[in-house]
Amino acid sequence: PIYYNDVYEVKLPKNHRFPMEKYGRVRQLVQQWLQNLPVDEQGVVNYEFRVSPLSSIDELTTTHDPAYVQRFLTGDQDERELRNVGFPWSQSNVDRSLSSTGGTVAAACAVVQARLRDPYGLHWGAHVAGGTHHAFYDRGEGFCVFSDMAVAANVVMKRYPDIVRRILFLDLDVHQGNGNALLFRDNDSVFTFSLHCSANYFSEKQNSDLDIELPPECSDETYLLTLKHWLNRIEREAEPFDLVFFQAGVDVLAQDRLGRMSLTPVGVQRRNQLVYEFCASQSLPLVICMGGGY
């Protein structure tokens, strides 16, 4: 299934640099692409769109400080907190943040439930939002209020402890996934891998389980060779995983206003294909989150 909610697009002040309209545009492009699939493929691919639910307080507090969650929900944040996140507070933004987290939780639960029904099939879900990897236990940063991937990981490990014991985060956004790195720093159940630009970050970097930095203006060839090498090593050397979260940020594109890297659209497609092949070869359930893109 693919999760989406119209509440993702909220009104921002004039000249705000965050491209809020990207969510609806991506949803429309995905729907058009799916409608144009050959008839024989339409019968094979399950591409049901589902409305992302609002994440509950119980889900959020598996990962985040209850006091921080409450401050955000009630608008009781100071100017510094709001400035660090980069969005003004509004009830619309509360709904957006709750649904952006809830969509990833729902996608993760859906693929785990599908795995229970069919242990040998390929079970992948997607979320046309999420990937908010700069949120920490008690604060948000860089357009990220809550870490949807971390919340989803903690929820499925709690709900399905016999099925989901080890999780892999593949973070291929141009920025390091510093929030997730810190949230799971002392948790051996989640392996965090971040492949990012060495000269591009929203805030202080943290130590992921595996951090690989690439230089600014990195090309398709260098990026793809590096990613393939490390995916192969993870497959060979890491303990087996039960679920993969893929932060599929496209701010690695040369056209991105904030990215500082030089990948082409074809390079990003090939990047994604490497991830899909990695998961398919091991029959790993996969949750895809949209991530950055400016």
From TrEMBL:
It comes from the Eukaryota. Transmembrane segments: none annotated. Keywords: Hydrolase. GO terms for biological process: epigenetic regulation of gene expression. Residues 24-294 form the Histone deacetylase domain. GO terms for molecular function: histone deacetylase activity; hydrolase activity. This is Histone deacetylase domain-containing protein.
